[in-house]
From TrEMBL:
One of its GO terms (molecular function) is transferase activity. Keywords: Transferase. It comes from Mesorhizobium temperatum. Pathway: Amino-acid degradation; L-arginine degradation via ADI pathway; carbamoyl phosphate from L-arginine: step 1/2. It is an enzyme of class 3 (hydrolase). Its EC number is 3.5.3.6. This is arginine deiminase. One of its GO terms (biological process) is L-arginine deiminase pathway. It comes from the Bacteria. It catalyses: L-arginine + H2O = L-citrulline + NH4(+).
Length: 282
């Protein structure tokens, strides 16, 4: 999840968010569609500067504000894409947008998660190429995890489910990726107190070094201080304003680029990882 980013699926905030009402989408008072669109442009500039090629989801005015968070409606594997099924009702149309994009791009579809299964991409963390850790919480259920296992076990991939806490409740967004961001094959940024204990132990047993995100910044940012996108091993994009977390990553050898994202990320519960669906990494 931290190899050099080559191709990534994104959806512009300017097309997805202009009519969104914060109360409907569970966005905070800091949400401002114009400001979010400008902040999204800054993220786009950083992604392009990394050398990655952006594939854009459709730009029609469909009112699907959360579709900017392209990490969640599909999962990429070495065997093709898996079209997921959203736990948040307002997001149920999004996997169809991803499937259409993959067909256009010529990316094979390995399978689909079907009702009553639910899986969101933010709950899926690859630990090496043969292990997928999946958070079981308000967005991803056991039926969905079983369907993922049915698709991936025949490919020699083990799927492990881990319970997540309820934390801020059923309406809020807490994914497994809310408490871990891979920074390199052997390095990850974590907020350990909210990591499932067995997952923490698996990471340690596999020799993955854990950088602790600052607790005060984690709470002040609604968890977004920890949501960091690697564009290559130890090259990361993070939300601006969290110097202790950035310093901890720098001490671990990371080069950190930041962009202002109060209206786009902190208000809308999704950071640079959530705003990108990597299609190809090397
Ligand atoms: N992977 C992620 O953590 N995605 C964040 C999604 C935020 C969006 N507002 C949601 O509630 O689904």
């Amino acid at each position: 999840m931290a190899g050099t980013l080559q191709r990534v699926l994104m959806r512009s905030a300017a097309s997805a968010m202009p009519r969104a009402r914060a109360s409907e989408w569970h966005y905070g008072p800091g949400f401002d569609p114009q400001k979010a669109a400008a902040q999204y442009e800054a993220l786009t500039t950083l992604v392009l500067a990394s050398g990655a090629e952006i594939e854009w989801l459709t730009d029609v005015d469909d009112g699907l504000a959360d579709s900017v968070f392209t990490h969640d409606p599909s999962l990429m594997t070495d065997h093709g894409a898996i079209i997921l099924a959203m736990g948040k009702a307002l997001r149920r149309a999004e996997p169809g947008l991803h499937e259409a994009a993959y067909r256009r791009m010529g990316v094979p579809i390995l399978g689909r998660i079907e009702h009553p299964g639910q899986v969101e991409g933010g709950d899926c963390v690859w630990v090496g190429s043969r292990t997928l850790a999946v958070g079981r919480g308000v967005r991803t259920n056991q039926d969905g995890i079983q369907q993922l296992a049915n698709l991936l076990t025949p490919k020699g991939i083990q799927v492990y489910g881990y319970d997540l806490p309820l934390w801020h409740g059923e309406e809020a967004c807490l994914h497994l990726m809310s408490v871990i961001s891979p920074l390199a094959d052997d390095l990850a940024l974590v907020y350990a107190p909210l990591l499932p204990a067995a997952f923490y132990q698996m990471l340690r047993a596999r020799g993955i070094r854990l950088v602790e995100g600052d607790a005060g910044e984690f709470f002040a940012s609604n968890g977004l201080s920890l949501n960091v996108l690697p564009t290559a091993p130890r090259e990361v994009i993070a939300v601006a304003g969290f110097p202790k977390t950035a310093a901890a990553m720098a001490t671990a050898g990371c080069r950190v680029s930041t962009f202002e994202a109060d209206a786009l990320c902190i208000a809308c519960e999704g950071g640079p990882t959530c705003l990108t669906r990597p299609v190809l990494r090397q």
